[in-house]
Amino acid sequence: MAPVRWAGDRLLLLDQTRLPREELTREFACWEDVAEAIRTLVVRGAPAIGVTAAFGVALAARQSRATTFDSLLADIETAIKGLAATRPTAVNLFWALDRMRSTLLAGRAMSVDAIRSRLLAEAQAILDEDVAANRAMGDHGATLVPSGARILTHCNAGALATAGYGTALGVVRSAHAQGKVALVWVDETRPVMQGSRLTAWECVRDGIPHRLVADVVAASLMGRGQVDLVVTGADRIAANGDTANKIGTYALAVLAHHHHVPFYVAAPFSTIDPTLASGAEIPIEERDPAEVRRVGATVTAPEASPVFNPAFDVTPSELIAAIITERGVFRAPYSFRR
Q1: What average pLDDT is seen over the chain?
Q2: For residue range 17-61, what is the model confidence (pLDDT) as tens digits?
């Protein structure tokens, strides 16, 4: 599965807003449209957002009519600013943009055409590294999965949220390949339903045994002893291990702690933000109230009802049994070294 890929002279994205009804691949030839795709969830998931933004910068270089380094730099800085404004919580976005800027600045002595080629190569390298990191992460995480495991996951942290394979679902994939997975409980993940629309779709495609449940069922499942571990992804991890992920993750961590179920986070090392001491400093995106007032096209609440719709919440590190990365498994007290 390749939700993000480059073909010829343009970026191809699998439109995740259309899943599971149809598989539609959209083409992008300018960075402005890439930014809108990130903003409107055509592509989502922190690692996939970072990869997509990197290609957005490569497109900006191709769009630019600059003939000098300084004019190219000005055009690309405009694109980086626009791409950075799309999703404030996912740190992979800013990490990828900083990496692309560094690549640009390192090429100051090169021709403009050579810089364009170098930026595209760097975006492709970010994509390739993400896939490799996900597979390594999956193998590290699979060591934590007992035989016959019943795993609960939230939102979509699969191939669709990355350049391929997945973070939390990558752990599930690796464990499934080893014959360890009895069942995956898939939270529907209100309000945008990434669990039911995307994670369940991936499980069907890969033949992973799963069962879809409403978000409110998680406590009952744990109370009945039907969950052996919880694995989620992450959009930003602070230096102390506090983790921002899809809204509802914190509640699952509290439930898991109460029921003595290990709660794991799987994320690439690029998701760790060492500049933030704790989760209190992580910016939380608030999205369109209409997402809560409807399910798909069906209106489920009065238009006049005020809505609070944070896209993420922060799970304190003390509720996290371990953080799984491509560099290995980290446990508290967390000390992440680049």
Answers
A1: 97
A2: 999 999 999 999 999 999 999 999 999 999 999 999 999 999 999
Q: Which of 135, 152, 183 is the last residue of a domain?
A: 135
Compute the CA torsion angle 326, 330, 335, 338 (nearest 10 deg).
Answer: -10
How many domains, the chain?
A: 2
The last residue of one of the domains, among 135, 151, 170, is: 135
SS (H, E, C) 10-76: EEEEECCCCCCCCCCEEEECCHHHHHHHHHCCCCCCHHHHHHHHHHHHHHHHHHCCCCCHHHHHHHH
Residue 330 pLDDT > 70: yes
Q: Kindly give the pairing relationship between strand 4-7 and strand 10-14.
A: antiparallel
pLDDT in tens, 104-158: 999 999 999 999 999 999 999 999 999 999 999 999 999 999 999 999 999 999 9
CB atoms within 10 A of CB 226: 15
Q: What is the CATH number of the domain that holds 90?
A: 1.20.120.420
Report yes or no: 27 and 4 within 8 Å, Cβ to Cβ: no
Amino acid at 185: W
For residues 164 and 221, state if they share a domain: yes
Q: 119 and 200 in one domain?
A: no
Q: Is the pLDDT of residue 322 over 70?
A: yes
Pick from 86, 81, 84, 28: nearest CA to 59? 28
Residues 190 and 308 in one domain: yes
Q: Which domain holds residue 266?
A: 140-330
- Is residue 25 situated within a structural domain? yes
Percent of the chain beyond pLDDT 90?
A: 98
Residue 182's SS3 state is strand
Annotated catalytic, 235? yes
337 burial level (CB within 10 Å; 0-12, 13-18, 19+):
exposed
List the catalytic residue out of 187, 215, 228, 235. Answer: 235
